[in-house]
Amino acid sequence: MRSRWVPAVLACCLAANGCSGSDKGAPQVLPSLMAPSHPSAPTSSSAAPDTVPSPATQATPKGAAAFTRFFLGEVNNALVHADSRRLKSFSEAVCETCRSYEKAADNLRDKGQRIKPAYLNVLSAEAPPETNGYVFVDVVGSQPTRQKVDLRGQIVSSFVPVPRFRITVVLHRVAGHWLVRGIQDNK
């Protein structure tokens, strides 16, 4: 059985994994993926069900996997468009990783920057049946070469590709829909 709340940080592997650019040569690190260090009472946002694709709303393993793909697509959208507004509605307040992605998107917006192309590519997402309202979705993904660009499309910095990573996205079923509870590294 998998450990429920093992803190994990993917600082270089999933975030930026080092980069080069005009930011004084310092590595650019986007938020790491990690889970809360302790379980706490569920706190949910009110996700707008009409924005979630139908397969991702199902209370099944396939639905949990589809929701995970959907959520990681929303992370991509937040960074590509420098707009975090939608992310909050798909995660619980205790998801530190989710909050760090929101902050990264807001920081990009404030600086007039964005990330291109998509930040995360999901190669596979598999979920076992729900247990006590929780599902641990195993995700295998990759990250292409990405750039941080300004409003004119000029490259501010570049990020090296990550050919393969493994994470577990912890989902919680609340009020008839999935919410991300945390994200764990699967080294």
What would a concise description of this structure say?
The protein contains 3 helices and 8 strands, in the order αβααβββββββ. The strands form 2 sheets. Strands 1-6-5-2 form a 4-stranded antiparallel beta sheet. It has a 4-stranded antiparallel beta sheet with strand order 3-4-7-8, with helices on one face. The two termini are 16 Å apart.
Topology:
Blueprint: H1 11-15, E1 19-21, H2 61-80, H3 96-110, E2 113-116, E3 121-126, E4 134-143, E5 146-150, E6 155-159, E7 162-174, E8 177-185
Antiparallel strand pairs: 1-6, 2-5, 3-4, 4-7, 5-6, 7-8
Overall mean pLDDT: 79
Number of helices: 3
In percent, how much strand structure appears in the residues?
Answer: 25-35%
Largest sheet: 4 strands, antiparallel
The rounded distance between the terminal residues' Cα atoms is 16 Å
Shape: globular
